[in-house]
Amino acid sequence: MSQKTAITKKLICKRPTFRMLPLGFCSGCHYGIIYRLLDEVIEEMGIKGDAICIGGGGCSMIGAMAMDIDTFGGPHGPGTAIASALKRVSPNAFIFAVQGDGEQGAIGLGSFVATAARGENITVITMNNACYGMTGGQLAPTTLLGMVTPTTPEGREQVMSGYPMHGPELVAPLKGVAYAARGTVHTPANRQKSKKMLKTAFQKQQQQLGFGVFEFLSACPTNWKISPTDCIQFIEEKMLPEFPLGQFKNIERKE
Ligand SMILES: Cc1ncc(C[n+]2csc(CCOP(=O)(O)OP(=O)(O)O)c2C)c(N)n1
Ligand code: SF4
Question: Which amino acids bring their CB within 6 angstroms of ligand 2?
Fold first, then answer.
């Protein structure tokens, strides 16, 4: 008689029950994983009925528009201003804006910093792929020094294009900011850590503590022109030294 081995199964994550459309991201893009995390967190927190997502211009918009929640398709740049207005007229709604790093750090920078300084009770999710993804990979404020893009064919150099910008660290010292952090999804362990931080960022809004920002590092194989596997190595070796992971601010109560 064969001996049966008992197998204990532990559910680590399950498929979210809502998503209207399939996601049309390039193969190897991390945006799909990030949206999956957003789906999971929204479902686990039970905020689906109250949530409104503001998408901007850029690839991140593709995922925002495919969520089965209320969405607002804002123009490229002022997503945080739109989110502020929506929160003021619907204070009981759960408002989050999704922005590309290009959008947030360039055309939308004034709005991003002003919204943080005002301490608007909203959450901003940033997708940092170190370039303007949708329009062909041009230089963004987050592009790494030495990184080749169509607008920096010799690689970004500081004298002409400045240093890379760090969104969460930039606004963390402002009094209106309740939460500022960065994560990545390029390994399963980091995916789980990021999920935890994303949930914390969302909880700050529920607790009415003020502005929250959570930045995801994300691969863009199409514009980086390397394979999805090499993208993981690129994040590990090039992005992490420039963009440290973790929480830069996490307040428990307002001053
Ligand atoms: C006002 C305005 N300026 C410029 C554009 C063109 N545009 C569309 S997407 C984009 C860049 C997107 O890059 P990023 O914000 O980093 O988002 P990603 O595509 O990488 O997610 C630009 C410049 C636009 N749609 N509207
Ligand atoms: S262009 Fe880059 S960011 Fe946009 S969907 Fe493709 S891989 Fe993702």
Answer: 25-26, 29, 31, 59, 129, 133-134, 220-223
Pocket perturbation via mutation, ligand 2, pick of 103, 223, 234 by most ligand atoms within 8 A of CB: 223
Q: Which helix (H) or strand (E) holds 112?
A: helix 109-118
pLDDT digits (tens, 9 = 90+) for 185-234: 999 999 999 999 999 999 999 999 999 999 999 999 999 999 999 999 99
- Residues with CB under 6 Å of ligand 1 are 57-60, 75-77, 100-103, 107, 127, 129, 132-135, 140
The CATH homologous superfamily to which domain 31-250 belongs is Thiamin diphosphate (ThDP)-binding fold, Pyr/PP domains (3.40.50.970)
Segment 73-97, tens digit of pLDDT: 889 999 999 999 999 999 999 999 9
Residue nearest to atom 2 of ligand 2 (CA): 220
Task: Compute the mean pLDDT over every residue in the chain, rounded to the nearest whole number.
Answer: 94
What's the confidence (pLDDT) of residue 2? 57
70-73: strand order across its sheet: 70-73, 51-55, 94-100, 123-128, 211-217, 177-184, 246-250
The helix (run of H) or strand (run of E) holding residue 123 is strand 123-128
Of the listed ranges 21-25, 53-57, 165-169, the least confidently predicted one is 21-25
Query: Backbone phi, then psi, for 217, in 5-degree steps?
Result: -75, 140
- What percent of the chain has a predicted confidence (pLDDT) above 90? 85
Phi-psi region of 164 (alpha: psi -120 to 50; beta: other; left: phi over 0): beta
Pairing of strands 246-250, 177-184: antiparallel
Neighbouring residues of 12: CB distance < 8 A, sequence distance ≥ 6: none
